[in-house]
Write a structure and sequence with these properties.
Order of helices and strands: HHEHEHEEHEHEE
CATH class: Alpha Beta
Shape: globular
Protein name: Methyltransferase domain-containing protein
Strand content: 25-35%
CATH topology: Rossmann fold
Keywords: Methyltransferase, Transferase
Largest sheet: 7 strands, mixed
Distance between the termini: 35 Å
GO molecular function, one term: methyltransferase activity
Structural class: alpha/beta
Oligomer: single chain
InterPro entries: Methyltransf_11 (IPR013216), SAM-dependent_MTases_sf (IPR029063)
Number of domains: 1
Radius of gyration: 16 Å
Length: 202
Amino acid sequence: MTTDPAVLAEYESRARTYDASAVHRALAGAVVDFARPDGAGTVVDVATGTGLVLRILARRSPSARTVGLDLAPSMLAVARDALPRATLLRADAAALPLADGCADLVTCVTALHLLPDPTPVLREWARVLRPGGRAVTATFRIADRPAGSRGFPTFHTRTASPAALARTVAPAGLRVTRHRTWDHDSGDSLLLAELEPVPRTA
């Protein structure tokens, strides 16, 4: 399993209250705006949680096939209530139960900082993206934090800036093609970034 059991327990405990956060709701909308999903046939949301991103996507691009994956059963239960037509699967992000080249767009919001080694997960994004497909991430622009009261460390610095993110995704064959900063009234500041597979040379 890619995810620390303490991380899974944390998000299991937050399933009923997660959607109450104004930051979570606003960020989901900002990610969809940034992703420009019009015309995307299949959208895969990794670490979908309660499905906030997919809910907005379903409203804006009703013809898109929406797929959400998460390890937290309680989060997925909330998502299923809100997204009866989506495909929602309990799955490890480093072993997506999806075919090669099946996705037009992969999204992942505030999850990469929870992974001690994100490369296997990023390689899965590159694998499931069709030619011309892309991924969109939202990552916090803050420093790493040691394990505290929640019982697990976080790894923010490798995705806190465009240059750091570019270095992190390169081993998976991805590159940053577009980015912007998103700031919320709460004081949260995030990097929204678009990634594409690096073209293979003959």
